[in-house]
Design goal:
Number of strands: 13
Shape: globular
Number of helices: 2
Strand content: 25-35%
Oligomer: single chain
Largest sheet: 4 strands, antiparallel
Length: about 170
């Protein structure tokens, strides 16, 4: 099962401070491949441009789906077994460090490069990293403020898939 994330968080006004904080994920670093994917030249990771449940050239169709952590772990398998996305069948949930790597530090609400990841809400996104000390907890990133944290695996959070680059 997946659930829709509240529409109220989809319309936050992003605030960026390029005059005082350098970009951590510049347009030149994040390459739009023209097929719904973005390649990060710094990490060599390829990201789906849109969150799961959203599609379109500018991620304008649909709403971000919410998943429990178990459901989030299954989502790449669902995509890959259905023929994949953009010609690739090795999509996966990012680990916590990979997910943090797309946080745009000069912006808030959301903390992501909206030129490359358009219409991204200020939502919480699951990583594939379990929390080592407690079995019912996993790591996520809040894209409202860029903080990583851990929460109960029954939380209802968004998913952005990744694959290793070349």
């Amino acid at each position: 099962l997946c659930y829709m994330i509240s529409a109220a968080i989809l319309h936050a006004e992003q605030i960026c401070k390029p005059e005082s904080i350098p970009a951590s994920t510049s347009d030149s670093q994040l390459i739009d491949n023209g097929d719904g994917t973005i390649t990060d030249s710094k990490t060599d990771l390829m990201w789906k441009k849109c969150l799961e449940g959203v599609e379109g050239d500018n991620c304008e169709i649909g709403s971000a789906s919410g998943f429990t952590w178990q459901e989030a772990l299954q989502q790449p398998r669902v995509i890959n077994h259905a023929g994949g996305f953009a010609g690739y069948t090795d999509w996966r949930l990012p680990n916590i460090n990979e997910l943090i790597s797309i946080v745009e530090e000069q912006c808030s609400d959301p903390v992501i490069n909206l030129d490359r990841f358009p219409n991204t809400p200020s939502s919480t996104v699951w990583s594939g990293s379990p929390y080592a000390h407690y079995s019912g907890i996993a790591w996520y990133v809040g894209f409202n403020n860029g903080y990583s944290n851990f929460g109960y695996r029954f939380g209802n959070y968004a998913v952005r898939l990744v694959r290793s680059g070349q």
